[in-house]
Specification:
alpha/beta; globular
């Protein structure tokens, strides 16, 4: 479906730095499909609760990075960061985790720097 959509809009992928493919509403199905991505992110919102990694371990095991979103709402929804981080690490030890808020900008600079460094790695010539 992704390849067909790209073909239909005639995108020249060599002209793109990033192509984000989003699956909304389900943390089970996307873990079953290889989209050929260079980097797979799993996002959970603080409003969803800390248990998502334990409830949906497959997506966390197939992802490279976890992002906890809407951190500006954490206090309002009684979100426990330590529990969430512990659950992520229990399912996928060593997984990189970003805490982001698009409203306040918290974590965005670090996340964007991470993406920029990944892009540089992908574009750098491989030395054998």
């Amino acid at each position: 479906m992704v390849a067909k959509a790209i073909e239909e809009v005639s995108w020249d992928l060599s002209q793109l730095d990033f192509l984000f493919v989003e699956n909304v509403g389900n943390l089970v199905c996307p873990s079953s499909y290889d989209l050929g991505e260079d980097l797979r992110l799993v996002l959970i919102s603080v409003t969803e609760g800390e248990d998502k990694p334990l409830k949906y371990p497959t997506i966390f095991n197939s992802a490279d990075v976890a992002i906890v979103t809407k951190t500006d709402l954490a206090e309002a929804v009684d979100f426990n960061w330590d529990a969430a981080y512990g659950n992520i690490q229990a399912v996928r030890p060593g997984m990189r985790v970003f805490r982001l808020s698009s409203k306040t900008g918290v974590g965005m600079e670090e996340y964007l720097q991470f993406l920029a460094s990944r892009l540089a790695e992908i574009r750098s010539p491989t030395v054998l």
